[in-house]
Amino acid sequence: MELLKQRIAKEGIVLNNAVLKVDSFLNHQLDPQLMMQIGEEFAGRFKNEGITKVVTIESSGIAVALTTALFLKVPVVFARKKKSILMTDDVFHTQVFSYTKKESNDITISKKFLGSKEKILIVDDFLASGEAALGMAALVREAGSQVAGIGIVIEKSFQQGRQRLLDAGYRVESLVRIESFVNNQVVFL
Ligand code: G4P
Right CATH number for 2-188 from 3.20.20.60, 3.90.1150.10, 3.40.50.2020, 3.30.360.10? Predict the structure, then answer.
C-alpha cells in the first residue's frame, strides 16, 4: 500500500535498527482517514472469504479492525490482555509472549462473542514474531471457528512471524513489508 509506505518513510522513526515507531498515525495518535483507507484495503482483499467477524487484540489493532469490519459490514471483537472486572463470562484464553516487550500476556475473548462456525478475519498492526496472531488463531480454533485470513498493517519480514503463520496454513496479507532497517532507515521489500 503505497500511501502507507509514504507515511512510514515520512513519519516513522527506527529505534536501534529493530523497532519502528509510528505513533503519529498508528500506535498512539491515530489518523482516522488513514485508518479508513487501511480498512477499505483489507476489506477488498478479503471480500470473497465470507468473513463473519473481525478479531484483533488490544490496543493498537482495534482502530484498523474497526474500519475493516465497517467495510465488511460485520462485528469486531478484540482480545483482552488483562482480564476486565466486567468480564464475568466464560472466556477462551491462551498465553502470548511478547518478544519485543519481554512479557507474557494471558489473552482472553468472552465465549459470548466468539462462537463456532464463524469465518474470522484476524487483523493486527504489526507482525514480528507472530505470537499475537498465533494466539488469536488459537482462540478462534478453540471456539470451533475458522481463521479465513490474517491482515497485517506492517510486517517486519526479517522476523519469523510471516513464515510461522504460513506454516500453520493461514493466508497472510500485509499492507507493507519491511525487509530490514539499515542505519535506522526503513528498507521496504
Ligand atoms: P508479534 O506482534 O508478532 O506477536 O511480535 P512481538 O511479540 O515481538 O510483539 C509484541 C508487541 O510489540 C506487539 O504489540 C507488536 O505489535 C509490537 N511490535 C513488534 N515490533 C514492533 C515495531 O517494530 N514497532 C512497533 N511500534 N511495535 C512493534 P502489543 O504488545 O500488542 O502492543 P499494543 O498493541 O498494545 O500497542
Answer: 3.40.50.2020
